[in-house]
Design the sequence.
């Protein structure tokens, strides 16, 4: 009899539809595109990166969280420098005298900038010039990305370091130069500064574009999952209504 098929031991269609929807909505999206990102900061971990900045040079640091959790991360940027000397004559003593050697090892670390639960950020730092320190030793910039506040969600962070050297980089400050050469060098450094600013803005826009692409891909997956879930739900409801209506009509049909 057709009625025996309707009353089976299978779970109700409505419960099956709920299970299908829960499976499709709770399943995390594929994270294969994240392999192309800058770094993956695991939950509860901290990644640090170090860059050397010559005396008088400027470095720009840009970052953006492109995937993972709430798209946020803690970050801190520090600069480590050697204390300045009193005059140029002491530079040679730093390599021979124990007192000045210990002075070279006794560095100072300062916090340049700090971000809390930030999605993006940027910061520039200029190392002390030779005229200020009298030794010309480079500074050391350290950037740490911290995902310690997250318990389960890793964060994919893309970052970039851009450096703009000083006008007198690589030149002995005791050597003179012609006025024309100085003017040309100053003009080139001026244009280089403009290009450095443009490169910084361009890099920031690129990071924003890549983050938007990741969000768009995630949104497309969610929409596709929703469409498939709606189709499955409609199909299950159609089958359920067909069987229920068939059973109802069989019960209401007059016996012959």
Sequence:
């Amino acid at each position: 009899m057709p009625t025996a098929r309707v009353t089976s031991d299978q779970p109700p269609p409505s419960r099956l539809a709920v299970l299908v929807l829960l499976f499709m909505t709770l399943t995390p999206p594929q994270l294969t595109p994240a392999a192309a990102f800058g770094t993956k900061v695991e939950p509860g971990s901290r990644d640090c990166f170090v860059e050397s900045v010559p005396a008088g040079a400027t470095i720009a640091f840009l970052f953006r969280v492109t995937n993972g959790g709430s798209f946020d991360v803690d970050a801190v940027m520090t600069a480590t420098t050697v204390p300045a000397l009193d005059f140029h004559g002491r530079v040679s003593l730093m390599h021979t005298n124990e007192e000045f050697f210990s002075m070279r090892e006794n560095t100072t670390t300062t916090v340049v900038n700090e971000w809390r639960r930030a999605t993006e950020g940027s910061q520039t730092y200029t190392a002390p010039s030779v005229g200020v320190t009298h030794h010309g030793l480079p500074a050391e910039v350290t950037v740490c990305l911290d995902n310690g506040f997250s318990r389960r969600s890793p964060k994919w962070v893309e970052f970039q370091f851009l450096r703009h050297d000083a006008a007198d980089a690589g030149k002995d400050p005791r050597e003179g130069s012609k006025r024309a050469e100085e003017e040309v060098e100053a003009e080139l450094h001026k244009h280089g500064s403009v290009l450095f600013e443009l490169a910084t803005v361009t890099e920031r826009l690129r990071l924003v574009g890549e983050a938007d692409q990741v969000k768009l891909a995630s949104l497309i997956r969610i929409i596709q999952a929703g469409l498939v879930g709606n189709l499955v739900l409609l199909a299950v409801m159609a089958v359920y209504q067909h069987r229920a209506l068939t059973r109802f009509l069989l019960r209401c049909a007059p016996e012959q």
